[in-house]
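Predict the assembly for these four chains.
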Amino acid sequence: MPLDNFNYSVSIDCVIFGYDTTDLKVLLIKRGEAPYLNYWALPGDLIKEKENIDDAVSRVLKDLTGLSNVYMDQVKTFGDVGRHPLGRVFTVAYFSLLKIEDYQLNPSSFATEAKWHSVKRIGELAFDHNKIFATCKQELVNSVKVKPIGFELLPEAFTLTELQNLYETILQTTFDTRNFRKKIHSVGLLTETGELQKSVSHRPAKLYRFDKANYKKLIKSGYNFEI
Amino acid sequence: MPLDNFNYSVSIDCVIFGYDTTDLKVLLIKRGEAPYLNYWALPGDLIKEKENIDDAVSRVLKDLTGLSNVYMDQVKTFGDVGRHPLGRVFTVAYFSLLKIEDYQLNPSSFATEAKWHSVKRIGELAFDHNKIFATCKQELVNSVKVKPIGFELLPEAFTLTELQNLYETILQTTFDTRNFRKKIHSVGLLTETGELQKSVSHRPAKLYRFDKANYKKLIKSGYNFEI
DNA sequence: GCAAAAGTGTTGTTCGTACACCCATGA
DNA sequence: TCATGGGTGTACGAACAACACTTTTGC
C-alpha cells in the first residue's frame, strides 16, 4: 500500500443532549475560526495520531464540559466529497447524554462560545452539521425506546412525572399517567430513594433512582427494555 | 487547519450476507497480498479521492459480485490505533444483503479467491475483521426484526416456508407455522404471484412476492414493521 | 379552603401463544 | 397408497388502552 493513500483527515462530532425539565437541548459551539467563522456548530475535533475514536469523543466532552464517563454512542460516519472546504475530512458522529445541571461552561480554545439550544430551534449550522444533527436526533429517539438511557438526562434522583415528561418530550407524544407508572413499576428498574420533593406548593412527589446494577442483571437474563 | 493533519486513510469493509435455503452465509475473500496474505477477509477497499462512502461500497459490491442496487446499510466505523499495520486506516463497516443465486464470482484484483462461508464457521480473519463481522451480524439481527429486509435474501418469488426458515436462521429461534403465517398475512406486504412451486414431491406451495410499493405506502402512513 | 400536582384500580380490547388435523403432489 | 411438506382455526391468557377521583402540600 503506497503511502500516498494517507491523505485524509478524520474527526469526531458530538451531538450532546441535555434536558431541563421542559425542553430537550443540544450543546452547540460558536466557531472561532474559518471556515464557517461565527457559525454555530457541533462540538468536535480531529482525531489525534495515537487516539482511538471513542477516546477522541471523551476528550472533546471532557474539554467542553469538564465531565468524564458521559454516555455516548456512535451513530454514523459522514464523508461526502466536499463536505469540508479544506480537504477530505471524514467525521464520525456520536450522540451523548448528560445531566444538564452537571455541566459547567468550559469552552475549549477553538470555540468562542458554547450554548444550549432547544432542539426545536436550530438554525443553519456549519458544514453538514444540520444533517448530522438530524440523524443523531432520530437515533436518540430510536435508542430511547429500547434502551433505558433516558435516565442519563435526569438528575440522580427524579420524580416519575419528570421521567414521563422527558419521554414525552423526546418521543413527541403523551402517555396516560397511570399506564406509564404501571409500566415503569412493572419493569423494576427504579428504586425509591426514600426522599420527597422539597418546597413545592403541592403534594411532594417521591424521588426515584435508576437501578443500574439491577438492569445489568436483567439484560444478562435476556431482558429487553421497551417503552 | 495545517495540511499535516491529512495523513490518515479511510476504507470501507462489507459484510455481504446471502442465504441458500439452509444456511446464512457471508462472502469472504482470500487476501492476495500482504499484510495478512492468504487470510480470509471481508471485501473492502480504500475510498477514492472523489468518491462518497456509499459509492465506494457500491463499487466494491459491483466489482466483486457484478450486482448493482444491492441492499446496504452503514453499521459502524472502526479506527483503533494499530488496527492496520501500515498506518492509521479507519474503516467504515457496512452490511449488505443479496440473493445468493444472483451472485456470480467476479473476483477483483486484490483477491485470489472469493467464497461463501457459513456464518457459523468463520475462522480467524485478517485485521480486526472478526470484530467487524460480529458487529454487523448483530446489526443484521436487530434490523431484520424492525425492517422488512429479509426479502433481499430470497429469490423474487418465494414460499412462506422459505421465509419462515430464513427468519428462524437469522434470529436463531423457531416460530409456530400458523402464527407466523397469520402475522405475515396480517401485515399485507406479500402478494401471491399466482404461481406454485414446481416439481416437488409433495403439495406445492404458493409463491409470494414482496410488495415494495405497498410497503412504501405503509411507512408513509406511520406503519412500523415488526416480526 | 383552594390551587396544583401526586398518586392509584378496573374493565374492555387487542395481541400473542399454544395446539392438531386434512390437503395436494410425486413416486 | 404412502411419504412429504403445505395449509388452516380456535381458545386462553397477557399486555395495552381508556378512564376519574382522592391525597398532600404551600399559600
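Chain B touches chain A through 26 residues (CB under 8 Å). Residues 129-146 of chain B form the longest helix (18 residues).
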